[in-house]
């Protein structure tokens, strides 16, 4: 008797297109993972109607001229001088093309952050993902405020967000919209 029986050979069933599409869109919404389902549903709707890009462009038309690492250093230093003068000086501020804008867990939220956070924190370097060089001015400000707040508060806790909102009153809206912007870039990349 043959050791092989037909029923032992199960065909590999590829994910149905609908499942693949759903997975793809869930992955696309990774920047919004910490937000409530009704908000995510609204964003999915905007993506499906191809309106997310236009909506962001209408609201955030203003670009910035912070192109070089030197300009970035001055930009960051100016905000630091104004709001966090007593915090440790920054040795270096650079755009980093290798830096992944990635989510990491912070309780109920996730946030945009840098990868080698601990090492950089120790040396008081600030690296900003290069994606923000071409981003609207408001999103560069948001990520810089976020990173500056980490000079005082390592965790994404209540006092961290209080500090962010103290430096930039519109911080929470900007962080959400920056996540929308990154989502939009992801959707474009996939098309
Ligand atoms: Zn952070």
Your description of this structure?
By secondary structure, the protein is mainly alpha-helical. Helices cover about 50% and strands about 10% of the residues. The protein has helices at about 15-30, 35-50, 50-60, 70-85, 115-125, 135-150, 160-165, 170-190; strands spanning about 90-95, 100-105, 110-115, 125-130. Helix 6 (about 135-150) packs across helix 7 (about 160-165) and helix 6 (about 135-150) packs across helix 8. It is globular and about 65 Å long. Zinc ion binds near residues 111, 113, 146, 150 and 156.
Low-pLDDT stretches are 103-115
Task: Give the ordered list of helices and strands.
Answer: HHHHEEEHEHHH
Cofactors and ligands present? zinc ion
The SS-based structural class is mainly alpha
Number of E strands: 4
Helical coverage, percent range = 40-55%
Q: In whole angstroms, how far apart are the ends?
A: 52 Å
- So how many helices? 8
**How would you write the strand order of the largest sheet?**
1-4
Please tell me how large the radius of gyration is: 21 Å
Overall, the morphology is globular
Mean pLDDT: 80
Q: Largest sheet at a glance?
A: 2 strands, parallel
> Approximately what portion of the residues adopt beta-strand conformation?
5-15%
């Amino acid at each position: 008797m043959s050791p092989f029986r037909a029923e032992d050979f199960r065909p590999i069933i590829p994910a149905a297109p609908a499942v693949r599409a759903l997975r793809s869109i869930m992955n696309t919404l990774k920047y919004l993972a910490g937000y409530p389902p009704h908000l995510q549903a609204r964003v999915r709707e905007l993506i499906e109607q191809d309106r997310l890009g236009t909506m962001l462009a209408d609201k955030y038309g203003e670009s910035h001229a912070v192109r070089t690492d030197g300009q970035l250093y001055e930009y960051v230093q100016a905000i630091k001088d104004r709001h966090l003068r007593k915090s440790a000086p920054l040795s270096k501020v650079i755009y980093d093309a290798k830096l992944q804008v990635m989510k990491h867990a912070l309780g109920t939220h996730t946030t945009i952050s840098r990868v080698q956070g601990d090492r950089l924190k120790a040396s008081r370097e600030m690296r900003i993902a290069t994606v923000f060089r071409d981003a609207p001015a408001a999103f560069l400000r948001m990520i810089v405020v976020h990173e500056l707040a980490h000079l005082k508060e390592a965790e994404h806790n209540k006092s961290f967000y209080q500090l962010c909102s103290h430096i930039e009153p519109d911080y929470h809206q900007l962080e959400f919209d920056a996540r929308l912007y990154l989502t939009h870039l992801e959707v474009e990349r996939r098309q």
